[in-house]
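Attaching the record inline, Q. Sequence:
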Amino acid sequence: MWSTPVNNSGGGEQDNNTIGSGRRWVIKIGSALITDNGNALAHASLDKWVPQIAALIGRGYEIILVSSGAVAEGVRRLGWNARPNTLHGLQTAAAVGQAGLVQSYQARFEQHAIQTAQILLVHEDLSSRSRYLNARQTINSILAVGAVPIVNENDTVATDEIRFGDNDTLAGLVANLVDADTLLILTDQDGVFDDDPRHNPNAKLIGNCEVNSKKLDQSAKGSGTALGRGGMTTKIAAARLAARSGTCTIIANGNQPDIILQLADGAALGTKLTNDRKPITARKQWLAGGLQVKGTLTLDDGAVNAVKNTGVSLLPVGTLACEGLFERGDLVSCVDRNKREI
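Structure, as predicted:
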């Protein structure tokens, strides 16, 4: 069992050795779970998850949903045979399906006297400091009245975000945005394995791991399916993004009975990814998550120590390699000799 001490304040600081030590959770539900093989929304699955979420809200939890399914629902409503592979086709399906997705959630949450709120974001909403803070305040206000924000990417206007893994990344960004205690990523797999379980029947589930462990990079094999955009690699990347604000991530099988309640009660299910570093400041969270990285600087050991521990300016002599094209004011990633981001 994972310990789950009670904390009555949402969005508080999290003990990295526990699951659910705070009550503000971001729950991400992927396409493979929320659709019937991509043909329509899996209403039976919604009937299972919504009562669990409602029960957590009754305990004082604050829940933010990041939900896929709009494109698949749009494909069904339009009578198409397959998910489109063009940007405009995806945008059309998302526009048609988004209303049905939110309606399906709203109808079920209303049975528990809970309201929902639709929030559609694009990258510019998070890269602009003022819009970032406004989105944060809006979500906090929605949570304060006991409603459930349902967050999705605004696919109908995005030009380069409808691609592999976006909702996983969005979930990590939202976890940063709201200072979530836990990011729960529900998928059709039991968690992260040490090898691809689809091809290796002897693959073993990784129960607990530090989020920046290299063994995760070796085990995170998989790619997007016809239903969605992400694989396990993007989920681990989302967990690392969320860890910047101290958020702990669980990757678990959403098909398991009462999975959300079991995890909240401390069941050792799925893969728990704990933060192995101190959370960075709120402004640095925004810089790291809200802005697009334009390049990478590989630093020598002396420069790594200087940047991490002294806060001095980076000198050219400490830079071993430079990748990408960037200008003054752009965001770059600094890595050590082993390509580990510092």
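The radius of gyration is 20 Å. Residues 1-18, 161-165, 222-229 have pLDDT under 50 and may be disordered.

More tomorrow.
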